[in-house]
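dumping the sequnces here before i forget
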Amino acid sequence: MKSPRTHFRKVESINGYLFALPYIFGFLALTAYPVLYSFYLSFTNYSVLKSPQWVGIENYRELFTDDVFHTAIKNTFIYMLTAVPLGTVMAILLALLLNTKVRGMAFYRTLFFIPSLVPLIATAMLWMWVFNGEYGLLNDGLRRIGVTAPNWMGDPAWAKWTLVIMAVWGTGNAMVIYLAGLQDIPQNLYEAADLDGASPWKKTKAVTLPMLSPVIMFNGIMGMIGGLQQFALPYVMFPGGAPARSTLFVSMYLFDNAFNNQRMGFASAIGWVMFIITLILTLTALKVSDKFVVYDRS
Amino acid sequence: MKRKKTLIIAITHMALVALSVMFILPLLWMLSTSLKPIEETMRNPPVWIPSVIKWGNFPDAIRYGERELGYIPFLVYARNTFLLAILTVTGSVLSNALVGYSFARLKWPGRDFFFAVTLATMMIPFPVIMVPVFALFKQLGWVGTFRPLWVPAFFGSAFFIFLLRQFFRTIPMELSEAAKLDGCSEFRIFSDIIVPLAKPALATVALFTFMGTWNDFMGPLIYLVDQNTFTLALGLQAYQSQHGGTQWNLLMAASIVVIAPVIVVFFFAQKTFIQGIATSGGK
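..and the predicted 3d for all of it:
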């Protein structure tokens, strides 16, 4: 006869699997299988109309010599390495300002947060109008202070920066996260710093930023993964990566190959290059963070 | 010392005011444009206060080109988007609650390993799985229907499972044990005890799912073919690209119509929003 304890454990296991069943199925069908299949596809010629044909590493070899792809990688990295740090700095600055417990904190917080609520496509429409070379708000402002206003969206040298500006504008999400992180810092650390006669700047440097570093790390990584996949805004604002491919991002090139050129094997290879870049970035970030991030909060 | 403190407060306030102007100005500009007659959108320097407030831009934007070819059925887009939002929110709350419960409160062989794998999948860029998932839905004959956009919501998502698991774990196990001694089935414990206690966390999942669906551009772009099935995000994009000489006042009015529900939801659920985002920040 089985003991009631093993019986209970067995029932719990069965229940466990039953409750998890939707995701077990979802994981297999919508994550595990697609990841493995796309790896296989990246070594084939494939359009949805015809079955995949094995071509070995041909797709990867093509990527290696494909100037358009190189441009897309370069643009994506320039965007990532400017938008993420600038967005982070702005988010931390806003959080620090709000954390001084000034009056009207909730009001300011709402103001800074609202832009990140605006749906991406509406964001695109709004800023296309702001950046409008002739009648746009930004250039009016620039002309007023006597700066020669660039044709933001039509000039290859400037087009990318419109997206960076928009990223900084939409940083309210991160601000909320940093604000929560700041409010978690034990007050006694500041009291100790006060006893030592530390200036506000010193306190920020010696207490606030180190204590906030795990949150900065996490959000930095997530921001980079997101930045690497930047798609909707440039796709809508700059069809085909115009002007002169200066806003062509990796995701756009992938999408274009998959759905406009029906080169789905090639597109899968691009996807895998993105995946590998993501892995390298994340692992490097974690490695670097061992040096700077303070995880021990005791 | 005291004077220095007042100075710091003054500087903080000035910085906050300057920054909030920067953040809010583009939105005010959109609002101003949406209420202008068309001629006043093309003035240099720009007009901030329209000479006449044209509320009519909003109905005009919604019914734009009704009598022309390529008519944009804006209300159809809105209906489609709401329909999808209802389906995805339902699916997401149901499935993630069940799965999160399993990971948090039930023991089964392989659970912890599978949870680690689930977390790791959050690193996979969406474009990697885009092609196989498309091929799969194509084979099922689902391309051109709403199904690829809502059915996956019923199979859980790693991020929400994580969020709910963390929350479910904070509920004392004694509650479940006591109910079990009373002869409650696992599902009854879940539905009658745990779910009512987890309302704030479930609200967060519902909210984020709603926002995700409202915002989604790539999904509809890939799967929707017929204009009558378009969502607002896709429709707004079509609006812009179909009209060479963009009528900015109408486009801004249409954009406001797309933004408005989100802002309304935000003001009703501000606390859920702020707490949800704060907990998603790696704590």
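The beta strands of chain A are 44-47, 50-54.
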